[in-house]
Amino acid sequence: MAFHPLISAVVAIYKPDKKYLQQAVSSVLEQTYPVEELIVVNDGDTSTVAKNWLPEDHRIRFFFKENGGIASARNFAIEKSRGEYISFVDQDDYWYPDKLEQQVNLIPLSCRECMVCSTVDIVDEKNNRLEKETRKRQALYDRNFSEYTVSEALLKENIIYSSTPLIHRDIFRKIGGFDPNVQPHDDWDIYLRIAFSSYPIHHHKTRPLSTWRAHELNESKKMPEMIRSRCRVEKKIMTYTENPDIRKALELNYLLDTIERDHWLLFKNQRYRLFRKHILHDLYQLMEYARHTPREHAGNARIRKTLLKSIRRYVYSCLLNGSQTKG
Fold first, then answer.
1. Which residues make beta-bridge pairs with 9?
2. 3-state secondary structure of 211
3. Which of 53-75 are b and which e, b meaning 16 or more Cβ less than 10 Å from the residue's Cβ?
4. CA nearest 108: which of 3, 225, 239, 216?
5. What's the N-to-C CA distance of the chain in angstroms?
6. Which pLDDT score, from 0 to 100, does residue 303 have?
7. According to the model, what pLDDT value does residue 103 have?
8. Bridge pairing between strands 166-168 and 85-88
9. Where does 59-136 show beta strands of DSSP type E?
10. What is the average pLDDT score of the chain?
11. C-alpha–C-alpha distance, residues 323 and 326, integer Å
12. Cα–chain-centroid distance for residue 79?
């Protein structure tokens, strides 16, 4: 290896599953490139006995803090960390043994302040690899990083899973930590801020180095909250970006996500009158956007899909007698 930086690993826990947490911790401690420390932050779970589930290892540093969510727990860990680089693993995910070794090898000596990421294997509760989902995510990851700049790729959606990045600690000092106001998309928000601050983001291309576990308690299954937090991230970044191309892309994404939010929060809850009120306003803006957008624009497919779904649901809601609805 070109150099041997100290690495702090972080896992924030709240009501963890014992076997998942133990696997996550073991995957960190058994890395071929040893971590300097593993910081475990209990985010206010007074009922857990998780500390007793951890192995005896001098590198483990256990902290308890009042509940504040995953973003505040990660920020707490960053403040306590001693490593030059910081890497995160969620309490229900795990790393492959050479994850850190492969990532350290990608860091150029001439520019140590950077972020290194990789794709993931999607696994189930029993660690079985979900082939279809994994191939889908790998293809999306490869296509976005090959066809677009990192900033453009991340603007489309968050293609970086939170258990994959290795980030130089000075980046957090300069751009700030994770933002609790945009949870659960606080990781997407910070990756965007890293990219827009022109820090290099290197990606391991050969194979997945981490896993993401699919189960019923995943935050990503809480679709209304996921969409709301996407909108918060997009609105936040629009307030400070000065790049007109980035701002235009964010405006489109925000509009599309706002419409999707109305589908989940209003239409699916049968609040049809309020749905029609919101969707008419947003569809007018979307059709105006589509009218001035080149045919080859990358967002056109999603624009068409959103238009068709919204029009169909608008008509459907009109066919239902307004007196039968909640809105």
1. 38, 87
2. strand
3. ebeeeeebeeeeeeeebbbbbbb
4. 3
5. 63
6. 85
7. 97
8. antiparallel
9. 60-65, 85-88, 115-117, 120-123
10. 89
11. 8
12. 21
Cβ(98)–Cβ(1) below 8 Å: no
In this prediction, residue 217 carries a pLDDT of 62
Residue with tokens 């239902």: 320
The rounded distance, in Å, linking the Cα atoms of 323 and 327 is: 9
Which region among 24-38, 57-71, 255-269, 310-324 has the lowest average model confidence (pLDDT)?
310-324
Q: Which residues pair with 213 in a beta bridge?
A: 123
**Residue 167: beta bridge partners?**
86, 115
Residue position matching structure tokens 């973003």: 71
DSSP secondary structure letters along 215-268:
-TT-GGG-HHHHHHHHHHHHHHHHTT---HHHHHHHHHHHHHHHHHHHIIIIIT
Give φ, ψ of 167 to 5 degrees: -130, 135
- Condensed to tens digits (0 to 9), the pLDDT of residues 97-138 reads 999 999 999 999 889 999 999 999 999 999 999 999 999 988
Residue 207 is encoded by which pair of tokens?
């194979």
- Closest by alpha carbon to 231, among 252, 211, 205, 207? 252
**pTM flag (> 0.85):** yes
Contact 40, 13 (CB under 8 A): yes
- Which are the contacts of 287, defined by CB distance < 8 A and separation ≥ 6? 307
Q: How does DSSP assign 15-60, residue by residue?
A: S--HHHHHHHHHHHHT-SS--SEEEEEEES-TT--HHHHS---TTE
